[in-house]
């Protein structure tokens, strides 16, 4: 996504805002219209992790809960006047060739897919 190894929080947030505006569709008018393009909409983070949920707790392997790691995205939503919904997360689904999962994630993936479909249908 980015051509450099260094990414500032400002660059990250700017990229998010531009992407969100693109998702809202083409906006015509004054630059201030961009700031209201997504106002009142909901931003829903849907993600998977390679590690188990126990890795995403204070002091765990990744040091922070998922919600804390998504704070920049939540801040962007707030800046745009959006509601930031509780993230939909599927934990423990490694996607590294040759790395064995501790269990068969197929049932969890199916349940996650059902929850995601229900979210999209709502």
Short description:
It is built from five helices and four strands; from the N terminus they run H-H-E-E-H-H-E-E-H. By secondary structure, it is mainly α.
Topology (elements, then pairings):
Elements: H1 9-24, H2 31-36, E1 42-43, E2 46-48, H3 66-69, H4 71-79, E3 83-84, E4 88-90, H5 106-121
Parallel strand pairs: 1-3, 2-4
Shape call: globular
Q: Which strand order spans the largest sheet, edge to edge or round the barrel?
A: 1-3
CATH superfamily: Flavodoxin domain
**CATH fold group:** Rossmann fold
User: Roughly how much helix do the residues carry, as a percent range?
Assistant: 40-55%
Low confidence ranges? 1-7
What fraction strand? 5-15%
Radius of gyration: 17 Å
Query: Could you give a short account of the major beta sheet?
Result: 2 strands, parallel
Characterise the protein shown here:
With 122 residues, the chain is mainly α. It has one domain: 3-Layer(aba) Sandwich (Rossmann fold). The strands form two sheets. The protein has a two-stranded parallel ribbon with strand order 1-3. A two-stranded parallel ribbon has the order 2-4. The longest helix has 16 residues. The N terminus is likely disordered.
């Amino acid at each position: 996504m980015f051509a450099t190894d260094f990414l500032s929080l400002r660059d990250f947030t700017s990229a998010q805002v531009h992407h969100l505006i693109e998702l809202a569709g083409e906006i015509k008018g004054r630059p201030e219209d961009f700031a209201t393009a997504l106002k009142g909409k909901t931003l829903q983070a849907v993600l998977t992790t390679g590690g188990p949920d126990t890795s995403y707790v204070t002091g765990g392997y990744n040091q922070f809960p998922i919600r804390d790691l998504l704070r920049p995205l939540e801040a962007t939503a707030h800046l745009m006047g959006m509601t930031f919904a509780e993230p939909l997360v599927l934990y423990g689904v490694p996607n590294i060739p040759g790395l064995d999962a501790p269990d068969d994630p197929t049932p969890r993936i199916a349940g996650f897919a059902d929850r995601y479909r229900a979210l999209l249908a709502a």
